[in-house]
Amino acid sequence: MLALAGSLASSSAALALVAPVTAGPPRPTHVQHLDLNAFFPATTKIHVGDSVSWSINGFHTVSFLAAGQVPGPPFIPAAGNLVSGQLDSASTPFWFNGQPKQIINPETAFPSGGKTYNGSGYLNSGTPNPGGPPAPFVVKFTKAGTFTFNCLIHPGMKGVVKVLPKGAHVPTATKDHATALAEYVDAVAKGRSLGKVKPPPATVLAGHDGTGPVAWLRFFPQNLKIKAGTTVLFKISSQREVHTITFGPAAYTTAIENTFTTPQPKPGGPPTLVVNSLGVFPSDPLPLPPYTGTNHGNGFEGTGVLAGGGGGPGPPSSMKITFTKPGVFNYECVIHEHMDGKITVTK
Ligand SMILES: [Cu+2]
User: Fold this and answer.
1) 207 CA → ligand 1 middle, Å
2) What is the pLDDT of residues 209-228, one digit of tens each?
3) Which of 82, 180, 302, 319 is placed for a possible disulfide with 41 were both Cys, Cβ 3.0 to 4.6 Å?
């Protein structure tokens, strides 16, 4: 019975087109620290009854919003679930004890709306689970229309599915692949050009992405050389990414990165994805104090999450830190692996 159902399903699937799209680059950029936050191709045309298959390459969602729906931010405070007992390495309690824990917005993180879209309502792939690439996300479209979808992690990362009546011209999957590759080549070229940025003095840019698909997961410059007493501006230079600037011993900051989110089981539903307070909150009440290399006993100081969206109620897009003591001070972004930098301070 099951085998029969399976063969019926595959024979009817063979008649309908499945259009390929990738969330993130269709192939590696082959440029160190360069990623792409876009859907390739940006626009897909199919017939009513056809499907689109999204390969998810990176931390993205495929999300169709209901009319009037404004997606919530990726991080939200957990009502009634407060940070407690967090001490620094000098055994002093952090300021954020008593604040609501930050969690990954469950509306963003978990699938919703099934695998068939009739052009209305909320349909979300959810975020990929850790460990291995996720299976393609396949959605069948049952109604003609033009439907925009978003990545809820990277604001402005959008694509369009045009569902046309049967008989209208639609490209073949081969043509879709060719369009995706042309867009990818263009995006990598934009990335190379944005990567030539020369930041102003005493400024570190986290990423330098413009408003398009480019996602530089590095700092510019990676080693900033300054005199003691200099105030450095750390600034997100991206509309779509979030980053942190987190100083401290490598073992301490890497531990924050490796436990950036922790699933806490919740009866009767998906787990709550709690974000590490040491990564998401600034290490100190703002403005951040001068950095001496021994803050919090072990040299920990961090901006918490910075976001480039700018203007809105979300996280800030920049912070300043004054460096008072000579030394070489390493920091990292605890959200993106291999996104590391250093500040070299001389007398
Ligand atoms: Cu980052």
Assistant:
1) 8
2) 988 899 999 999 999 999 99
3) 180
Average pLDDT over the chain, rounded to an integer: 92
* 63-74 tens-digit pLDDT: 999 999 998 888
Q: Is 329 helix (H, G, I), strand (E, B) or coil?
A: strand
Q: Where along the chain do its domains lie?
A: 14-74+106-192, 75-105+197-346
339 C-alpha to ligand 1 centroid (Å):
6
Class of domain 75-105+197-346: mainly beta
Distance (Å) from CA 332 to ligand 1 centroid: 8
pTM: 0.90
CATH fold label, 14-74+106-192 = Immunoglobulin-like (2.60.40)
Determine the distance separating the centroid of ligand 1 and the alpha carbon of 309, expressed in angstroms: 14
Cα(244) to ligand 1 centroid in Å equals 6
How close is the Cα of 242 to the center of ligand 1, in Å?
6
Q: Are strands 145-150 and 137-141 parallel, antiparallel or unpaired?
A: unpaired
- Decide the pairing of beta strands 340-346 and 223-227: parallel
Please give the pLDDT value at position 312. Answer: 61
Spell 201-218 as b/e; 16+ CB within 10 A means b: eebbbbbbbbebbbbbbb
